[in-house]
Amino acid sequence: MLVHTPDLVAFDLDGTLVDSLPDLADAIDAVLGRLGLPSAGEPRVRRWIGNGVNMLVKRALTGELWPQDNPPPFDEALTMFMDLYEANVCNRSRLFPGVAEALKQLKAVGFRLACVTNKHSRFTRPLLDRLGVLQDMDFVGCGDEFEKLKPDPYPLLKTAEFFGIEPSRGLMVGDSVNDVKAARAAGFMVVCVPYGYHGGNGVECLKPDAVVSSLTELPALFKKAA
Ligand SMILES: O=C(O)COP(=O)(O)O
Ligand SMILES: [Mg+2]
Questions:
Q1: Contact 49 CB / ligand 1 (< 6 Å)
Q2: 12 assigned ligand-binding residue
Q3: Which of 118, 152, 173 for a ligand 1 pocket mutation test, highest count of atoms within 8 Å of Cβ?
Q4: Is the pLDDT of residue 96 over 90?
Q5: CA distances (Å), 39 to each of 26, 33, 52, 63, in order?
Q6: In the predicted model, is pLDDT for residue 47 greater than 80?
Q7: Confidence grade of residue 224 (pLDDT, cut at 50, 70, 90)
Q8: Ligand 1 touching residue 102 (CB < 6 A)
Q9: Would you call 179 helix, strand, or coil by DSSP?
Q10: How far apart are CA 119 and CA 143, in angstroms?
């Protein structure tokens, strides 16, 4: 349940708006292959998405979820991944069901919409554009454009500032612990989708204000709010 109807709805990208796993996994496996390392495959890459591109590449090189240092050959692997994924950012990636309709509907009734992602700007706008939803966003903030990534509240606080709204009037819609922690620390409301890349446990464990199985359920949720 939401305490009130939001003035601003900020969406996470990977695992919330877009099922980007197939293209991310293909690019990671291509990098690993070029380095003579065994491929990772979609189930493992799924768990590595969400903390930005540097962390994704580190995780792929080490196989660890929380690697300490930059493992060699990190710089080479990162450059390779950036170029490969940028060139193949939307081969198999698709909007999750209901996303296009929900964004158009929310926009039509006057909500301000943003995409606040840890994804790099080299991938984010081209991907949203290819999937036909970039024009629905009043603001797009990417991982490399903020001083800190989610779960830090900084990206959401900057987004609220951009719109000139109180953080308590903002809603974050996301798929992972990073989104919930960022929203709570910023003072945003938070709703989760269960279909994304949230690791092993269900999103209910993250204690969001609500869980929606499709973004098309958001308007009904807002109607019930004060
Ligand atoms: O890890 C990433 O690059 C993107 O993650 P996000 O869109 O879920 O914030
Ligand atoms: Mg996500």
A1: yes
A2: yes
A3: 118
A4: yes
A5: 9, 6, 20, 11
A6: yes
A7: confident
A8: no
A9: helix
A10: 5
Are 99 and 190 within one domain?
Answer: yes
29 annotated to bind ligand: no
2: in domain:
no
How many angstroms does the Cα of residue 102 sit away from the middle of ligand 2? 18
14 is in an annotated binding site: yes
Q: Which domain holds residue 120?
A: 8-19+93-224
Kindly report the CATH number assigned to the domain that includes residue 194: 3.40.50.1000
In sequence order, what are the residues at sequence separation of 6 or more whose Cβ sits closer than 8 angstroms to the Cβ of residue 18? 93, 94, 95, 96, 99, 127, 128, 131
The number of folded domains in the chain is 2
Tell me, using a 6 A CB cutoff, whether residue 50 lines ligand 1. yes
Q: Is the peptide bond before 151 cis (omega within 30 degrees of 0)?
A: yes
76 shares a domain with 13: no
Residue pLDDT, tens place only, 118-165: 999 999 999 999 999 999 999 999 999 999 999 999 999 999 999 999
Residues 141 and 79 in one domain: no
Closest atom of ligand 1 to CA, residue 196: 8
Polymer length in residues for the chain: 226
Q: What is the mean pLDDT of residues 18-28?
A: 98
Consecutive H or E run containing 80 = helix 74-87
What's the pTM?
A: 0.96
Boundary-marking domain end, from 35, 60, 87:
87
128 and 35 in a common domain = no
pLDDT of 53-76, one tens digit each? 999 999 999 999 999 888 889 999
Pick the atom of ligand 1 nearest to 51's CA.
1
Cα of 195 vs centre of ligand 2, distance in Å, is 10
Which ligand has the nearest atom to the CA of 27?
Answer: 1
Q: Are residues 75 and 97 in the same domain?
A: no
